[in-house]
Amino acid sequence: MRTRTREPQTLGSEGTLDRMARILAARNIDPAAVAELIDDPESFSPLDALSAGLPPRYRGAVADHPQVLAWAHDVAEAAVAPSRGARRQVTTGPSLLMAGVVGAGKTHQAYGAVRRLVQSGVGVRWRATTAADLYADLRPRPGGDSERELAAVSRCPLLIIDDLGAAKASEWVEEVTYRLINRRYNHMLPTLITTNLAIKDLRAYLGDRVASRLAQMTTRVEFEPADRRRHRPAA
Ligand SMILES: Nc1ncnc2c1ncn2[C@@H]1O[C@H](COP(=O)(O)OP(=O)(O)OP(=O)(O)O)[C@@H](O)[C@H]1O
Ligand SMILES: [Mg+2]
């Protein structure tokens, strides 16, 4: 029997750095921000790490919606320490369905909620994706492992699914969304969902199974129907 051997890779070798750059890019993390943290470990804090992982548009986002603040409080309260004396980690907790018109401030509140959680001192592993990007990542393709990717997003302790309902509807979209939501529903994993769709349209788009689970697992947050992008100076 032949065993395949791989060249040993030291940390910082070209291959490792390339891989790290790809992982950071896939998570929308600015490699320059990470390099700064590595160069100056003294300045490292959970909030620094959070900022490095946030898209620049929402880096300063602060949650101020009462229901979003209440959600962050409840999730922080539900956090548990994996061992005695260890920092409490987000495990299970409630979810939010933030609905409103384009530009209402939903994504701002979602990132602001993550900031709030980190500020509260609990540890949280989180991921954010638009539904459309998620479907693109999960499309079976040569060399890709979409089942593994689906398992990773399904199990991530906190997931932001931005713009649910904005991608073209299809049986495949319905099935993948069902598999994702069903896993998060079963494991009671906190999920922040934003959508422009009304509930009845979401049901038509995703089917009864997903709509029923969302109705039970999420609190619905309605935003004022105003496009904030049109009422502020360009940035
Ligand atoms: N509370 C806030 N304070 C300051 N700026 C805000 C606030 N909420 C939203 N914004 C800004 O308003 C703009 C629109 O917000 P955001 O992108 O969150 O809207 P959205 O509801 O997610 O829109 P879409 O449905 O198109 O994705 C952004 O530039 C955001 O930074
Ligand atoms: Mg948005």
Automatic annotation (TrEMBL):
It comes from Streptomyces zagrosensis. Transmembrane segments: none annotated. It comes from the Bacteria. One of its GO terms (biological process) is DNA replication. GO terms for molecular function: ATP binding. InterPro entries: IstB_ATP-bd (IPR002611), P-loop_NTPase (IPR027417). This is DNA replication protein DnaC. Residues 95-210 form the IstB-like ATP-binding domain. Pfam families: IstB_IS21.
